[in-house]
């Protein structure tokens, strides 16, 4: 497997590399300075060359169009390891974690608090297939992509709400989910975002409003003291570490599926 990383990573890199090794495969890490897809060489050339050496390609990229192009020109399966638009492997691991802790995803209330980013888009895509109640509480102007929300709502599979009041959002939640306010590629906006996102920190008070059955989840890496308090991450109902471990188990299933094993 060729693993192309245009952005940094701990979980995605290590879980794919270790996971593929456990399945009997061998993974090659290609960091931001290695192949420089789109800069040193065109994506369509990279796709065909790597397809000649590998049975599968996994890529973490900036523009979503780049992974679509990679998949279009590759002759082997391409797995999305995160783009600016979505993060499907993360949401597969999250679903597995919810099933392990609650018993099922169907019918649960999952409340995401923060930026309407790539993680939210993957939740919306999942909500188009599996019925649950998904709420995204974000500041005005930081909503997820309108087209993606509309499409997910039009499927009628899940109840989907995009609102701006975290307290109202989390009432009766089975899961409260958080992510960084400034994603990779937005770090120069971090100071500004910290101001705009005031009131969207998941703290002990917000978890109290959610109620005693609510689990806390975060895709990690987390900025403790920013989008979430240290106390919430370390609390007994925080399942962020089983969630991180599940990246590997979910992805192993994805790899077996795409390889037709
Ligand atoms: N959650 C996640 O994708 O982590 P990394 O950025 O460390 O891979
Ligand atoms: N929204 C975050 C997720 C990191 C796993 C980012 O894109 O940086």
Automatic annotation (TrEMBL):
Enzyme class at the top of the EC tree: transferase
Residue span, Aspartate/ornithine carbamoyltransferase carbamoyl-P binding domain: 1-100
Keywords for this protein: Transferase
Superkingdom, taxonomy of origin: Eukaryota
Aspartate/ornithine carbamoyltransferase Asp/Orn-binding domain ranges (all copies): 106-257
Keyword Transmembrane helix: no
Entry EC no(s): 2.1.3.3
Family (UniProt): Belongs to the aspartate/ornithine carbamoyltransferase superfamily. OTCase family.
NCBIfam families (alphabetical): orni_carb_tr (TIGR00658), PRK00779.1 (NF001986)
Protein known as: ornithine carbamoyltransferase
Gene field: LOC113725286
